[in-house]
Request: fold
Amino acid sequence: MTEKIINEPYVSPNWGDEPGWTPGKITSRIVDLFHRECDVRACHMLSFMWGTGNPALYSHKNLLDVTHERGGDLYGPTAPHYFRHVLKMVKAGRAVKFDPSNQAVAPLPNDYFERVASVHTPVLFMTGMQNHVFTNSNVVCFEEMEKMVPGRHELHQFDGYGHQDVFMGKNVHVDIFPRMVEFLRKHSVGSEIGKAA
Reply:
């Protein structure tokens, strides 16, 4: 859409701050019409870019004002190629390469799950229960990997959180990070973190 309709190679949360009436700024103003949950244009654009919901990326109550107001700087623009790749994976029902003929990614498997069993590093999949960005993708990914290598990975869903606020919410040091530290300690062998457990 952005390339053909408004002649832009990317979508930016900061379009609303552009000087004059650029195609990006007009797009931002149109998006504003559908987002009355706050007065931060970048927040509206981020919801438009990444998910569904008002807002999509996080719960406002979980963010400090300074974090919310700087959303456009914290996330930045995104090229439509990302969304094309996601669409291809959705249509395939698998985590596949966007372009298998691209020699730059030739060493990677055509289906990203092909080599799951050979990766021995455990992963803690984390998501908020109110996630509006690829709503249950972490859950589905965990479940698929659990079928392939049972017990290697873990999943934790945090109530009251969305997609990105699990990393940048004002209370993550209390609500989220202790779970991450617990996971790191559990899987640390001979490290200082493991010894401190």
User: Anything to note?
Assistant: The longest strand covers residues 124-128. The radius of gyration is 19 Å.
